[in-house]
């Protein structure tokens, strides 16, 4: 085993050991060789050194803003001014559609810029989402179609060879399984006559996407036993195309086919379903594996490894029990070997995350037995989903009122990463009162502290979460006064979970859920601005951006123009890191650095245009149809509800900052955040959420954001 393979194996082992309380895992017939399993990486995460020496002298904002040099430039409501004086900052709701708009407006009226962490995190989301959707459109969809057509054709031949044997139903199920995917990808695809009825029923359930706990016609094929707990039930509301997949026919159909492959679970506890899985593994040849791996490895780089058993594990066991290239006859007729294989499959690790609807523990007490199985293209293990899994029913039990915690809160994640403020808010909301919640949270926090950076940054998804961790830390002496209060701690949490929402939005298909022009004019004023001093976040953003570019370029999945854009984003993050370090150390900024702060809006606009060029957007005027606001569901309550996480229109933030020995107000752009339960058969799309925001039918922002939010104009 080479060094890279040993490293990868040891890292996966470390994660599994650290999360043991979470419990985790992941051919053409005749004598065609079984595929050689690939084990290739993309790019490694390289930490950027940060020099933090906080030395900013404490300051207070005087009543009436009398010690603020540019106070006459602004007109605040009484409520907003009180918060600005008390906390040193205030967030003002404002219906701006994108971050760059705020900074360009500042440029025109000579308002000092306050460059926010929010704006830079949003910038990375734009690129991440662009890279993923263009990869899916230009490459992955074609690979998926080729793989599906090959498997459908060969599964029909395999069925003919197994007719009138004990394996006939398992082979027939596979024909139906691939026929569903083929029809989703291409409505003109023919459905084999032998499975026509089951496939049409399945497709109708997917198209209607209304049922959240309903027997699957395909997966239950041949099931003569009407045993409630043995029936395979599916949540068909998961097939509602959302995120960026709702924007085009190609992505909608890709989404539904991949959701089908990622959710259908050939349960280890069911021998006939396991036969189907083994037949699939035997059907794979090197070409099929090439198509499969060309989908799996890039999405692994973006999101992470599968949380379920799959082709790799079953192929390895086939070879172990039957030899290198067993024929179909050997696999299906050697009873002793089948018995041995079936027994060894039972010993494989279960998934860490349950993503299928099951009954409660009184009816199905052994959850691992119920959910463990083979998935053709399994959805991915993510750290946040594992955290959520351990903070909802069954891992936590009833509270004093007899209620069950069926849905988590996004604040669970920063609390698990060590945020005392997040935990205190959860406590005030009554979320920590469920039996076992405090103990489970403490256990998770200890495991998070023990995880190495290499374990946290194996893919872009994990590195994104790692980038957000500094936002859970309270800022102490030596930081600007506006950062040294509870209100700022809460503002950081809103930034954290808004960026987290963008991450969940971008990866909604892959990550498992448990059951987010230059210009100027006017009078010359001193408009020197300020960068929110979060140098660790900017350093990690630079490292994440470099990892993104290097990984995709290593597989020739990156064009020159996009590589240049990522290089520019990395360089901007490094420049903001340097400026933040200088601000904290009380070192003067150069004129070039002040110019960079002034020009921030134009740079954001450039990045925004790059991120939407695949959709024909070539002007900032298109921002109305492509706003920053987005929505995603991150967890499902089988009783018919999902937890929606949304970012709304971009808010303004006004901050009193020290510049060259005097105080001034600088203005920037920040996220607005929403969380609410919503019917699962109406999982929200970005378009519907945008409509709700524009008609003001959206739910209110969380109460805990009120300590730093106020309207700019006093209501009559």
What does this structure look like?
Keywords: Signal. InterPro entries: DUF3160. Pfam families: DUF3160. This is DUF3160 domain-containing protein. The model is unreliable at 1-31, 354-359 and 516-523 (pLDDT under 50). The strands form five sheets. The chain has a three-stranded antiparallel beta sheet with strand order 1-10-11. The chain has a three-stranded antiparallel beta sheet with strand order 8-9-12, sandwiched between helices. A two-stranded parallel ribbon has the order 2-7. A hairpin with a 3-residue loop joins β8 and β9 (641-647). The chain is elongated, with a radius of gyration of 27 Å. It is built from 25 helices and twelve strands. With 716 residues, the chain is mainly alpha-helical. The protein has helices at 3-18, 78-87, 99-108, 117-162, 168-185, 196-208, 249-263, 271-283, 286-302, 311-322, 328-333, 335-346, 367-371, 383-389, 412-416, 420-428, 437-450, 453-456, 460-468, 486-506, 535-554, 560-584, 591-598, 600-611, 686-694, and strands at 89-96, 114-115, 214-215, 233-234, 266-267, 373-374, 530-531, 630-637, 641-647, 650-659, 662-670, 673-679. The longest helix is centred in the N-terminal third of the chain and has 46 residues, at 117-162.
Write the layout of secondary structure elements.
Blueprint lengths: L2 H16 L59 H10 L1 E8 L2 H10 L5 E2 L1 H46 L5 H18 L10 H13 L5 E2 L17 E2 L14 H15 L2 E2 L3 H13 L2 H17 L8 H12 L5 H6 L1 H12 L20 H5 L1 E2 L8 H7 L22 H5 L3 H9 L8 H14 L2 H4 L3 H9 L17 H21 L23 E2 L3 H20 L5 H25 L6 H8 L1 H12 L18 E8 L3 E7 L2 E10 L2 E9 L2 E7 L6 H9 L22
Parallel strand pairs: 2-7
Antiparallel strand pairs: 1-10, 3-4, 5-6, 8-9, 9-12, 10-11
Helix pairs in contact: 3-24, 4-5, 4-7, 4-9, 4-20, 4-21, 4-24, 5-6, 5-7, 5-8, 8-10, 10-12, 19-20, 19-21, 21-22
């Amino acid at each position: 085993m080479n060094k890279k393979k040993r490293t990868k194996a040891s890292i996966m082992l470390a994660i599994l050991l650290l999360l043991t309380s979470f419990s985790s895992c992941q051919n053409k017939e005749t004598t065609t060789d079984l595929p050689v399993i690939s084990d290739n990486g993309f790019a490694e995460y390289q930490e950027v050194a940060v020099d933090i020496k906080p030395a900013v002298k404490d300051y207070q904002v005087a009543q009436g803003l009398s010690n603020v040099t540019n106070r006459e430039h602004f007109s605040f409501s009484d409520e907003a001014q009180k918060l600005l004086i008390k906390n040193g900052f205030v967030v003002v709701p404002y219906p701006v559609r994108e971050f760059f708009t705020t900074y360009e407006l500042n440029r025109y009226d000579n308002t000092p810029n306050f460059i926010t962490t929010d704006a830079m995190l949003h910038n990375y989301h734009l690129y991440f989402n662009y890279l993923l959707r263009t990869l899916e459109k230009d490459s992955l969809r074609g690979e998926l179609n080729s793989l599906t057509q090959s498997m459908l054709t060969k599964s029909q031949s395999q069925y003919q060879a197994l007719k009138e044997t004990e394996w006939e139903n398992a082979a027939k199920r596979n024909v139906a399984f691939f026929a569903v995917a083929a029809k989703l990808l291409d409505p003109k695809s023919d459905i084999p006559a032998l499975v026509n009825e089951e496939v049409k029923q399945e497709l109708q359930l997917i198209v209607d996407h209304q049922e959240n706990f309903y027997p699957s016609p395909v997966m239950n094929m041949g099931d003569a036993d009407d045993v409630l707990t043995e029936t395979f039930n599916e949540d068909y509301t998961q097939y509602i195309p959302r995120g960026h997949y709702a924007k085009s026919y190609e992505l909608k159909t890709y989404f539904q086919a991949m959701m089908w492959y990622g959710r259908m679970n050939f349960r280890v506890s069911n021998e006939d379903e396991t036969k189907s899985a083994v037949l699939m593994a035997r059907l794979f040849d090197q070409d099929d594996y090439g198509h499969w791996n060309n989908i799996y490895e890039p999405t692994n780089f973006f999101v992470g490894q599968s949380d379920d058993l799959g082709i790799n594990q079953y192929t390895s066991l086939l070879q172990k029990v039957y030899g290198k290239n067993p024929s179909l006859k050997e696999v299906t007729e050697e009873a002793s070997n089948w018995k041995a294989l079936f027994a060894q499959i039972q010993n494989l690790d279960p998934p860490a995350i349950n993503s299928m609807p099951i009954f409660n523990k009184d009816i199905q007490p052994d959850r691992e037995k119920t959910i463990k199985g083979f998935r053709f293209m399994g959805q991915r293990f993510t750290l946040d989903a594992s955290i959520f899994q351990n903070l909802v029913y069954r891992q936590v039990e009833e509270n004093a009122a007899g209620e069950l915690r069926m849905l988590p809160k996004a604040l669970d994640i920063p609390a698990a990463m060590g945020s005392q403020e997040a935990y205190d808010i959860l406590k005030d909301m009554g979320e920590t009162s469920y039996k076992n919640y405090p103990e489970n949270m403490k256990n998770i926090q200890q495991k998070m502290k023990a995880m190495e950076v290499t374990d946290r940054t194996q893919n872009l998804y994990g590195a994104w979460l790692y980038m957000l961790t500094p936002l859970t830390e309270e800022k102490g002496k030596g930081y600007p006064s506006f950062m040294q209060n509870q209100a700022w701690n809460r503002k950081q949490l809103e930034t954290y979970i808004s960026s987290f929402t963008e991450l969940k939005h971008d990866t909604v298909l892959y990550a498992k859920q448990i059951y987010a022009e230059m210009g100027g004019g006017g009078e010359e004023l001193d408009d020197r601005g300020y960068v929110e001093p979060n140098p660790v976040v900017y350093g990690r953003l630079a490292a994440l951006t470099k990892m993104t570019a290097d990984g995709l370029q290593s597989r020739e999945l990156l064009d020159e123009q996009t590589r240049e854009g990522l290089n520019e984003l990395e360089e901007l993050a490094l420049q903001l890191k340097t400026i933040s370090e200088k601000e904290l150390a009380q070192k003067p900024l150069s004129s070039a650095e002040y110019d960079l702060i002034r020009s921030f809006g134009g740079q954001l606009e450039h990045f925004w245009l790059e991120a939407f060029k695949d959709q024909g957007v070539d002007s900032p005027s298109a921002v109305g149809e492509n706003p920053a606001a987005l929505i995603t569901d991150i967890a499902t309550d089988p009783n018919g509800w999902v937890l929606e996480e949304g970012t709304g229109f971009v808010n303004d933030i006004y901050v009193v900052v020290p510049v060259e020995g005097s105080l001034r107000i600088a203005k920037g752009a920040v996220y607005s955040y929403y969380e609410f339960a919503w019917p699962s058969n109406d999982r929200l799309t970005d378009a519907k959420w945008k409509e709700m925001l524009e008609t003001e039918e959206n739910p209110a922002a969380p109460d805990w954001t009120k300590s730093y939010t106020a309207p700019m104009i006093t209501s009559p």
